[in-house]
Amino acid sequence: MVKFKSLTFKNLPNAAHYNYCKNVHYKTVNAGEVVITALGILPTEFNQWLTKETALMEWIKKSQLTAMIAEADSRMDRALVALNAQIHALEFSIDSKIAESAHHVAIMLGNYGYVYSKPYEQQEGDVDTILLQFTGEYAEDAALLPGVQAWITELQGAFTEFSQLLQQRDIRSLLKPKETFPVVRRGIEKVYHQIVTIVNAGAILNVSSEFAALINGLNPEIERLNSEFHRVRRNIKNAEPEPIPQQQYTGLPVTPTPLILYVTPHDGTIRLQLGKDYNISYKNNINVGNAEFTIHGKGLYTGRKTVSFIITR
Q1: Residue pair 240/116 in contact by the 8 Å Cβ criterion
Q2: Cα(first)–Cα(last) distance of the chain, in Å?
Q3: CA-CA distance, 120 to 65, in Å (whole number)?
Q4: Among 13, 92, 286, 309, which is 20 to 30 Å from 28 by CA?
Q5: Cα–Cα dist 138/152, whole Å
Q6: Three-state DSSP state, 63
Q7: pLDDT for residue 82 is more than 80
Q8: Which residues contact 225 (CB under 8 A, 6 or more apart)?
Q9: Beta-strand pair 268-271/260-264
């Protein structure tokens, strides 16, 4: 007896069940008349759900825009961290005027706290205000501080890019499909299981030799999809490590462990686990200055991603 094997949707990415469903639809249209009658409008309904899912997947591909926002944010964070480090170092200048100006600016920046740990919209507001301060009340102080203007210029460039990308994201949000991914997924699975039930019944009833051949022909395809897509791995480059605040110099290796999140279209935001999903290594993490850590994908995750942080006295 030929038995139709079904896929486990929850563990498969879009490509797997899309290819499979496409095979079911296009190959069953030529199956036995009894099965076709039983299927009725199910293949059409199935395609309607798939169309909705395709639209949602296109929407989810905004992850490219999300990645661009994250990169602009990272650039802005680096400029802020470097600006803070430069100003704090100048507070100890032997030139009293430079030290005094650096102190004024440091107090101003301190009022905003760790900007890079705040939500995007709040970061945008804070950095905009900081940049206005540097062209207004603190312009003279900034002009006296060596090397600071270069970081202000870098911060301005990163901020402009960051703001433009956020605006693009807001525009895209107006075009977001009405139905959520879980709703569409449930619709697909519901119709899918109805189709599988009818197809299995057709196999049991042995409707026709043509239908039996259909089942025999599809099963190897299902096996291939199962084996191929259950091993799908995610690239750790798309993970989002929590920004590392300035670390205190101790004379020993500084090894902060960041919270690392991974956003997926199917499962939402996943908190990765050290040792299970990734390992971490450090570089230049003893002396004052720029340090970095690299997260190395493990298990279901591949690739690696390097993030910088600052060590200060």
Answers
A1: no
A2: 75
A3: 14
A4: 13
A5: 12
A6: helix
A7: yes
A8: 7, 12, 16, 19, 20
A9: antiparallel
